[in-house]
Design brief:
The N terminus is likely disordered. The strands form two sheets. Strands 1, 4, 5, 6, 7, 8, 9, 10, 11 and 12 form a ten-stranded antiparallel sheet that branches. A two-stranded antiparallel ribbon has the order 2-3. The chain has a domain of 139 residues: Glucose Permease (Domain IIA) (Distorted Sandwich). The longest helix has 131 residues. 20% of the residues are buried. With 397 residues, it is an alpha+beta fold. Strand 11 and strand 12 form a beta hairpin. The chain contains four helices and twelve strands, in the order αααββββββββββββα. Pfam families: CC_PcsB (PF24568), Peptidase_M23 (PF01551). This is Peptidase M23.
Length: 397
Amino acid sequence: MKKKILPVVLTLGMAMALTVPNAASYAASATDKIDQQLTQLKKQKAEAQQKANNAQNQITKVQSEKDQTTKDMNSLVNQVNEASKKLTQLNEQIDQVSDNLEANAKQLDEAAARVDSRDNMLKSRVRLMYMNGFVSYMDVVLSATSFSDFLNRIEALKSIVNQDKEILESNKKDKEMVTQKKAETEKQLDSVKALYAEADALRDDLQAKEKAKEVKIASLAKQERELEDISEESDKQITMLAKQEADLQAKKRAASNTKSPFTYAGGKLGYPLTVQAPITSDFVFRINPVTGKPENHKGIDLGAPKGTPILAAENGSVIYASWMNGYGNCVIIDHGNGLWTLYGHIMNDGIYVKVGDVVKRGDKIAGVGSTGQATGNHLHFEVRKNEVPTDPKPFLR
């Protein structure tokens, strides 16, 4: 009986000796394969991150250019206001010159009428002299019948001579004034034409500048939207790659019989800061304070001073630790059972963990900052269930 058992035992021992190395070899092979997949995945994630960073850099550049253009628009508005004042002054000058033209035209008409009246009177006297025959002043004086009549005739002749002299002098002055007023009127007309041309040129220039600025702002806004779409798509791709990487890490742990870091099976999470902080923005639909656009705020903002330690809310594995679009510096931890926590707006050089690190609840993972789309120092804290953001408050109560 013993002779029969011995060969069987020997056979089983040899079989086990052969099987164990094969199992170890298979596990090593599976781990190597997963490592290759992880390496490829990290490369894809790095490319996606670079694409997101490039888009963010371009967004920053476009926003800066748009801000400058907006400042230029404000400057242009000031120019328009100044130009409006100048146009008002030009219109006042035009009105004044027009009034002067009307006054000159009236004076010209009156002077011309006086000249015509005097010319007609002089012509009438010449016509009478012609019809009645020429009588010299001497004949008039010598035909006086008495000394008194002689004196009267001399006074009458003086009066006629003075009147003729005054008529001629007045006509001379009026004709000179007519010539002068005509010259002034032509000059004023030229001035009015120049003022109108200046006003039209000023108005056209301002309209062209305003139109150009509006077109530029519209173009920059379009570029910004396109870049934000690229950046948002890159963030989605990065998150998807992080999920795939987390799944591969889980397979690797299973293949190498490594203990899982995931312990979350429900219940309350740990508070993500070393100090209690006020909620400065809730899990609500709101207007983004930086972009001014409506959005669903995917987490809660906890106002805290720069550098305040950020703590892991639960045991888990770090699946993301880098820059992410509006979040700025960001860390994502996978806690198992589809639960992730996200920590955003971390200060520069404030990420203290790396992808693949296993963390425990309460471990310090980062420091509060204001990177990304932030108006001040705070922690943006998200809870994602199967990658979908959910209100974090019930998990912290």
